[in-house]
Design goal:
- The protein has about 60 residues and is mainly alpha-helical.
- The protein has one domain.
- The chain contains three helices and two strands, in the order αααββ.
- It has a two-stranded antiparallel ribbon.
- InterPro entries: DUF4250 (IPR025346).
- This is DUF4250 domain-containing protein.
- It holds the Pfam family DUF4250.
């Protein structure tokens, strides 16, 4: 699966997927075969971190 490389576009994509289809980041990454570390590190560059309670990057 190809995901956006741009951090802002990635943020939008991941948060939408989490909101609409996945109950947490681990399941999303497993189902879509994505690197959790890549997502976390990329979104950290724009000061977003995963919030488990909200199930989104904030």
């Amino acid at each position: 699966m190809t995901i956006p490389n741009d951090p802002v576009m990635l943020l939008s994509y991941i948060n939408t997927q989490l909101r609409d289809y996945y109950s947490n980041l681990d399941i999303l990454c497993e189902e879509l075969e994505l690197s959790k570390d890549f997502i976390i590190e990329t979104l950290k560059t724009i000061d977003y971190e995963y919030n488990l309670t909200q199930n989104q990057f904030v």
